[in-house]
Design brief:
A seven-stranded mixed sheet has the order 2-8-7-6-5-3-4, with helices on both faces. Strands 9-12-11 form a three-stranded antiparallel sheet, with helices on one face. The protein is built from 13 helices and twelve strands. About 45% of the residues are buried. It is of the alpha/beta class. The structure holds 4'-deoxy-4'-aminopyridoxal-5'-phosphate. 4'-deoxy-4'-aminopyridoxal-5'-phosphate binds next to helix 4.
Length: about 350
């Protein structure tokens, strides 16, 4: 693309700049990154061992069909292997879903604020974003989303739990919504943070997809499984959708390292989910700490919390950075703070208290 269209430029300018790398801590100070919802734990020794084996065959292309990982996922979730598709991170799969379903003149509905990739990948496809504001309680307004459907709607994202608010929609309302969506519209349940959900009322998308051919569930190895740097995500959907995803995947887009580490992680799931349990405990501690300090924080079912800091957002993020924790500011709105190591969470709580 030689020139950026004014519409795309405006869209991109509204997106906060991503700052890669480590936070700039003062000399001698430990720096913690709480800005990308990553898992603070390093890879398990067994996963590393597998990865070191794979490193030896870097002269070879990966298994293009992700055969081993696909069958492991099918077993794990009790679905036919034909209902599974893997991709370059779940954002890669989301991009494929949009490209496969939507183009100029079509509409893609999602809540706002939600995952920042939705407007970007919608724009890239040439389709039009239809953003439906969250309720005042920072939750998806599914009735308003249903009301936003037109004959141009092709795809709807429901981010559950929602990034960046951490809020989740409940089973009864989600089922009611899915029943109201015409069957030729694809509903993507983006469950990147599913393993952190503890509210029993929040449905497992994989149960909802089973008798709904127009529902596609997105999951990732980047969060609970701690493989963000390896870029591997997957979709579970009925055959036509999953087959379309397999056909439109970037050839060799999931490295052998990613495939083997993902399989090793599934096999070490008990240990990894134990770590998730610790993070969920920390989440409760951070949430309660913030509320005791007087902050209004929505209930979160993900590995982050959302603080409405309004006009003070950039200042607040700056103070956090100086204290050695990088958080994710959404200027004028709020900050999203990943639950990290105990020490990192402690620093953040201290900064939040002083800033309040
Ligand atoms: N969906 C949501 C809601 C996310 O927050 C993220 C990561 N920030 C992703 C998808 C993408 O994750 P990945 O591409 O690493 O699988």
């Amino acid at each position: 693309m030689s020139e950026t269209s004014p519409r795309l430029r405006a869209e991109l300018e509204g997106i906060p700049t991503y700052k890669p790398g480590k936070p700039a801590a003062a000399e001698g100070q430990q720096a913690y990154k709480l800005s990308s919802n990553e898992n603070p734990y390093p890879p398990l020794p067994g996963v590393l061992e597998t990865a070191m084996e794979t490193v030896r065959s870097f002269n070879r292309y990966p298994d293009m069909a992700c055969t081993g990982l696909m069958s492991e996922l099918a077993d794990r979730f009790g679905v036919p292997v034909s209902h599974v598709a893997t991709g370059t991170g779940s954002v890669g799969v989301a991009q494929q879903l949009i490209q496969a379903t939507s183009g100029p003149g079509d509409e893609v509905i999602y809540a706002w604020r939600s995952f920042e990739a939705y407007p970007i990948i919608t724009q890239i496809s040439g389709a039009t974003s239809v953003r439906v504001p969250l309720t005042s309680g920072e939750v998806h307004d599914l009735d308003a989303m249903a009301a936003a459907i037109t004959d141009r709607t092709r795809l709807i994202f429901v981010c559950n739990p929602n990034n960046p608010t951490g809020t989740a929609v409940r089973k009864a309302e989600l089922e009611r919504f899915l029943d109201a969506v015409p069957s030729d519209i694809l509903v993507v349940l983006d469950e990147a943070y599913r393993e952190f959900v503890r509210d029993p009322e929040v449905p497992d998308g994989i149960e909802l997809y089973r008798d709904r051919p127009n529902v596609c569930v997105l999951r990732t190895f980047s969060k609970a499984y701690g493989l963000a740097g390896l870029r591997v995500g997957f979709a579970i959907a009925h055959e036509p959708v999953a087959a379309a995803l397999r056909k439109t995947a970037v050839p060799f887009g999931v490295s052998q390292l990613a495939q083997d580490a993902a399989v090793a992680s599934l096999r070490a799931e008990d240990e990894l989910l134990g770590r998730v349990g610790v993070l969920v405990g920390e989440r409760t501690r951070v949430l309660e700490g913030l509320r005791t300090q007087g902050w209004t924080v929505p209930d979160t079912q993900a590995n982050f919390v959302w603080l409405r800091t309004g006009d003070r957002t950039v200042d607040f993020a700056g103070v956090c950075e100086q204290a050695g924790v990088t958080v994710r500011p959404f200027p004028g709105e709020g900050v999203r703070v990943t639950i990290g190591e105990v020490e990192a969470n402690d620093i953040f709580l201290k900064v939040a208290e002083a800033f309040r």
